[in-house]
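In this supplementary section we document a worked example of the pipeline. Step one takes a protein sequence of length 278 as its only input; no multiple sequence alignment statistics are reported here. Step two produces a three-dimensional model, which step three serialises into structure tokens for compact storage. The input and output of this example are shown verbatim.
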Amino acid sequence: MSIIYKPCGMAREYSPYACNIYIGCNHGCRYCYAPHTLQRRGEEYFIKPEPRKDILKLLEKDLQKNVYKEQVLLSFVGDVYGDNADDCATTREVLKLLNAYHVPVAVLSKGGKKMLRDLDIFKEFGDRITVGTTLTFLDEEKSKYWEPNASTPSERLETLKTLHDKGIKTFASFEPTIEPEESLKLIRKTLEMDCVDHYKIGKINNYKREDKWQDWEKYLQDCVDLLRPTGKQVYFKFCLRKLAPNVQLTPQEKNPDEYIVRIKDESEQLSLFDNKKS
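The serialised model returned by step three reads:
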């Protein structure tokens, strides 16, 4: 069984591959899609999860059989730096394995400064890793309401700044966008702090019609006006683009794979792969 898989649908816009280490999450985000996707009740999903059974053994078997030249995202289900039963020790071991096989990796977490405990491993990846967080509200009270047990907006921003200053490529996920003005404030804050290299921008989807009354075309244009002059890497998700057909975007701004992490020296990775198989 391959533990690394190809996501589909809206998830595919984030990464060509993914790996889920924990099934469950304690953040309790009101907009979370995972319980519905996994057909679980909230009380079954919003827990302090254990790592998946035999995750390290299964991952190594996968890596011994397959070469991954494009990024593997950690993760779509659960948070690799959440309040996990093993205190995220498995996350560290998974990163070590992926690095040993020269796999390019993207890490997405709302864990804030907890991510910094693996800064040493992030550095070992060199340019084969990007580390990011979801940004929804600058207002801490609103953030607490929507994401009760996740790290605060200020902690997430400071963590991005630390990672960026240490030479780690960073990204910010503005999905969901719940209140466009809050997201725009956050974008301005990240530009002021110079802590984000790549932006992924979408909107809230399928949550109690929260997305029906927003002027998404104005939001997309405002994002373009803010970010394009900076030269930052930006990808606008299809769910947002389809509601703003009059906003002119570049091919790069519409290509989900334009800025993903890839292997630059394939011969080096293939040589390593062959050595580990022998």
